[in-house]
Amino acid sequence: MRDRLADRFGEDPLVAEYGYSSFAGALIFDDEGERIGIIGAYFQHRIEREPAVRGTLRLFAAALSPAVSALKSQRALCESEERYAAMFAHGHMPILLIEPESTQIIEANAAACALYGVDERELTTMSILQFAADPPEALRKELRAVASGLRDYFVARQVVARREVKDMEVFAGPLAMGGRTLVYAVLHDVTEKRRAEAELSRYRHELEMVVQRRTADLLDATSALEAERERRSKLYRDMGLEVRTPLQTILGFSETLATGLAGELNSEQMRQVTMIGEAAKRLSALLDDILELSRLESGGAELRVEPFDLRHLAESAVVSVQAEAADKGLTVRAEVPGEPVDVETDRTKVEQIIAELLSNALKYTETGEIVVRVAKPLPGEARVEVSDTGVGIPAEDLPNVFEEFRHLRGGRAGVHTGTGLGLALCKRLAQAIGGRIEVDSTLGVGSTFRAVFPAHLAQDAQAV
Question: For the whole model, what pTM was predicted?
Fold first, then answer.
C-alpha cells in the first residue's frame, strides 16, 4: 500500500487529474504459484482500514486467477501458432499435414507444392498415396505407426514433379488439431545420397571380389613357390649326399698320391694330382654352400646365440686369408675400434659372412688392399664392412649381385672362379640373424660390402 502519491508521482495523470492519494495492490498467482499479474485500487483519501482493503484485493486476485491464466495460455498458444504458421509457410523443406486414416493431404507448404508440381488448392484435395511409387499399403502402415507414436522416421519412394521417382526421408510425428490426430511430415530428398551409397556398395563388393581373387592367386603362387623351394632344397640335399662320398674318395686319393705314399711322382704327375685336389676342394666348397643354402631356405638352420667381441672375429678372419692374399701381392688388414664391440648373436654365421665377403674380395682384386672394418655399433645394431680396390661392379649389375650362381664381371684375366653362391649365401645368412647385406661399388675403383645385423639376439631367437 502507498499513501501520499502526489509527493512521489505528482506528474502521473491518474494522480494529477483525479486526485488519487493512495494505492493498494495484490499479486495474482496461477495454480502452480507462478506470478501472472497484479490487481490494484486507487483512493482519493488515505486508506484507514488497511487489513480489510488488503483482504478484499486478495479475494479479487484469487477470483481472477483462472481467467488471467487462461488469457495467458491463449496468448502463448496464439504466438506459437503464429510461429508454426510462419515456419510452415516459409520453410525450405517440404512439409505436409496428413490425415492418417484417409491419407488425405490437409495442408501443404510452398516447398511441398513445388516438389510435387501441384498448387496448394489441388494438392489438399489429394491423397498422399497418389504419389506413392511403392505399394500404397506400406505407406498407409507407416502413417498409422506415426500417428500412434511408434515411428518418427521412415523412407518412402514418391513420384514427384515431371514424373520423377525420388527417395524421400520422412521425419514425422502426431499432431492434435481440431479434436483429431493428424500427422505432420517433413520431407528430405535423399535420392542422390542413396544412389551414391548403392554405387559405393557395388564398388566395395567388386573390390572385395578382386581382393578375394588376388588373395587366392597369391595363396596358389605361395604354395607353388613353397613347393618349388622344397623340391629344390631336396635336390640340393640329395645331390650333396650323392656327390660327397665319391668326392671324399677323390680328395683322399689325391692327397695320398701328392704325399708320395703310393710311389714317387714326377713334376708333371704332381702338377696333375694337385689340379685334381684343387678341383675336388672347389667342388666340396660348392657342395657346402649348396647344403647351407638348402638349410637356410627350408628353415632347417638353427641359431646358436652367444656373446663375443666382434673385433676378434674380424681379426681372425684377416689372419686366415693373409697367405692367399700375399700370393697375389695384396695387403689384407683389419680396422677395429679400440674398445670392445660386444655382440650377442650366432657367431658361426657372422664368421661365415665375413669369410665369404673376404673370399669374394680376393677373387676380384688384383692390386691394392682389402680392409675389414668393424664399425662402432649404433644403438642395437652391429656393422662389419669388407672393402677392396678391385675391379668394381657395373651399376646395372648391382641389383643382381646377391642372386644365386651370379658371377660378377671382372676377375683375373676375365675368368670367373668360384661357385657363384657366395654372395647369395651371405644374404641368406644375414637374414637368418635378422640383418641385411648392403653394397657400394664404383667400376674400376672397388667395392664395399656391409653386413648390418642386430647386436643382441634373444637366446630363443629363430632363424628368419
Answer: 0.46
